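Model: Ready when you are.
Researcher: Fold this.
Model:
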Amino acid sequence: MARTRRVLISGASGLVGTALTKSLRSAGDEVRHLVRRDPRSSEEVRWDPGAGRLDPAELEGVDAVVNLSGASVGRIPWTAGYRAELRDSRLDTTRTIATAIGRAKAAPKTLINASAVGIYGDRPGERLTEDSAPGSGFLPELVVDWEAAAQTASDRTRVVSIRSGVVVAHGGGFGPVRQLTQFGLGTRFGSGGQFWPWISLFDEVAAIRHLLDSELAGPVNLVGPTPATSDRVTRVYARELHRPRLLPAPEFAVRMLGEAGQRLLLDSAEVLPTRLRSDGFHWKHSEIDDAVVAVVHGEA
């Protein structure tokens, strides 16, 4: 009988953290959560990433840490204050965990740290793998710093930076697209030819579990194996919700939402899951259609 694995998760109350916790516990693993308030049970551990506080002793006996903390990039506009929150919520948490790992008497074997496909920026006409150079601008530079903070723990543990695409799920990143479509306001944005990296929630969780058992280290793209354009994504939602699509929203109108609107809706990144595929991972939802159908019809 395999030994129970002990996993410590930050950002456990979020979409992915909640699903991951449920999946791990159903498999018999022991899961504890990092919380910023007083613990309510033995399954919670107090920390204060803003002050860089996490007792290294809490990592003793832990096999893996999964850090999913970070404010949502989907909130707009990106004011100066919110940009600071986007950075601090990622860098403070990652540095605090990396420091605790460095000071622990017996470090966890693995740190899986959230990252994002936003590292690539706007790259029309390119097929992007983990070996592709980062883009330029606020979001790519933030993700570069985020991954660098995680890598400071690499002399004590195996570090994996999961560059996740938009998670297709109830409450996921395509939520606004679904809501607009449900109200008959669905549309494509700009040309519609820009690629939106995506992954179903089921496969996001399955991929993290795969990486817990893998020997991969460094960046890993967590995206579906078949890239999808924004035109295709919005068409699938309109079809499955039995709603029309309006005329396209022109680029100048989207740009009025500011940099966040442009980065999230108009940027193109055809991201490929090269390392995940080579490591033998198998997707349940290999097409965006499969993922949207599962969510809309309650199969995911």
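Researcher: Now this one.
Model:
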Amino acid sequence: MCYNTRFSHIYVERRIRNHPRTEQILLRFPQAQIVEIEHYKDVFNRHGQDCVRQHQAQALILAEKTDHFFYEGAPVCQDFGNTNFYYCSTMMNCIYDCSYCYLKGMYPSGHMVLFVNIEDYLEELDHILKTQNMYVCISYDADLLAMEAVTGYVRLWSAYAAKHENLKLEIRTKCAGHAMWDLPCLSNVIYAFTLSPQKMIDAFEKETPSAFARIVCAAEGLKKGFPVRLCFDPMLYLPSWKTDYLQLLSQIDRIFGDRMLHDGWEKLVDVSVGTFRISQEYMKKLRRVEPFAPAVQYPYVNCNGVYQYPPELLKKMESFMITELTQRMDKENIYHE
């Protein structure tokens, strides 16, 4: 089957058609067909969409966010010991196509929504930060760094964080674009790299950078003094999982050593460990749209509304990883779901 190229079609809400950021983004895609719409949900929330097929020819939807700029962090997400844990979505959906991604269970569409009014997010944050600290994950429902060349949003967030010491940002990514290290180096902006063994990337994480590329990118950030977090989360099961994760850890050791980062593990802000888990609501749809994905169709157990590996396997996988990591770094910097 022949698909259109990514962003060959761009839908634009009429009310933000002349927004400066809309115009900047459209200039990047001069060949795209522009379709004006009343509201992004007219396209994004249509019934009967096939989000898996749509990923093969993603459209971009430019919209305005009007409410609910920040949400409290979900119980299945790690807060790394921070209070006032929130996340926000300046984008919805991802350019990567991981078969196990919860977004396929959460959203009705595979197209990407970009809210152009990021200044409204920052204005609301101004009010909140007057009364409390905040830990905000800005890249949960999309990979912002993978879209930075289009949006420039990570640079905007960084500039804002530089002026607010009581704000801490986490930017989760599978990206390996070294241009991120041209951004300001700030102690309150953490770059969190999701790492998987290459065998699992090949099987479950289509279109994402290799394990090698991600590790090299993270190592460069460490060497330049950026706060870097490594996330072994989600850990995924294959019959060879133990060998696969040992190879991944050895690969990190080698890359750190090759770049004279002999204390690389200690330079990390922290690491996170957690096996795959997903809410029962999202899993129901995810299994329907990914019927042939082993990571999705595995016989998970439902524990209080969350699908996860059977307790014995879960404990075995996570304990193994924690044991290996404690040989490389302080245990107090290992966060475990």
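Researcher: Key takeaway?
Model: Residues 66-93+118-336 form a domain with the pyruvate-formate lyase- activating enzyme fold (CATH 3.80.30.30).
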